[in-house]
């Protein structure tokens, strides 16, 4: 049975922890984590286990045409739009036990408690397991929720192939999770996703709960600078068209832009390619990616505009040609204020330490936020480590995050008109 602390119904922390550890055994990794990449046999086995548990908890199961699973428990009024809560069960090739899985199984635990305690609720509650959040086998990431939100269409998703040429559509069919009903927007009363932070902030601040206010925006730009190759010995410095002249100014300037918009801005230059790539030749071409992020959409645009102007100036002054290719853009997302306030209130009432935080990584909530009131709950993870088999979270923090989720779901699932009276 689920304990209470006198005032509140709480989740059964041992049961939640047990389901997390049992799920981790499916596609168990070599170093204590999991390898349950999307639409593999291990992903199917993980889904099968989730579906069995959800049925045992009294849920009905619906699967949409891109394999998103919705485990539904009706409330007093089945005609009301549902409260949606969950995350993803797929992992990186060397994934941890908590990324995504925590959000799905914490929502399942909430539904188990609501059912066994007979807690009355008006709205239906649906536990969601999104398909292919990680994107490591099938790019892009967050594909299942992306189709539902309308960012991608179903045919696009089916045609995506992995590195061996297997398509998303055929693999979905093969594991038996190509469902019937359309992957499309519908009325959702609230979407709430619990997740490990995947960063170091909560641990460093000594806080148990992160009340997530949004997801920072990001641009991936590739910068290509083209000059002229020449011999490193005979060519005087002032007669060269050396891409490094501009690159060094651009790199220093790009990091300077991050400093200027500190502490929220992030600028990363993760690679650099020189062509032809010979130690005694001035390169003809330099290509490097810039990953640039900020939680506020207009500030992010300002940063990108400054970077573009910098590339232009530096290239002209070094007599180079330049090109800036946009590879990817994740819009900055602000979560629903009422839902964020509700999560904050519940964390406080339960007596947990908490702080507001912006997500540094993308999540399926990015997509649900486009058509439904959305918010997220973070718990700390050890050393901020994720996408690593060593990913770890503390039992108490997992329980705390799931308790905040349970309380938030219960509150959100009451008919708002009754709540107001
Ligand atoms: Zn995740």
Automatic annotation (TrEMBL):
The keyword Metal-binding applies. GO terms for molecular function: hydrolase activity, acting on carbon-nitrogen (but not peptide) bonds, in linear amidines; metal ion binding; N-carbamoyl-L-amino-acid hydrolase activity. Binds 2 Zn(2+) ions per subunit. Zn(2+) 1 binds at residues 88, 99, 195. Residues 214-315 form the Peptidase M20 dimerisation domain. Its cofactor is Zn(2+). InterPro entries: Amidase_Cbmase (IPR010158), Bact_exopeptidase_dim_dom (IPR036264), Peptidase_M20 (IPR002933), Peptidase_M20_dimer (IPR011650). Zn(2+) 2 binds at residues 99, 134, 387. Keywords: Hydrolase, Metal-binding, Zinc. Its EC number is 3.5.1.87. Belongs to the peptidase M20 family. This is Amidase, hydantoinase/carbamoylase family.
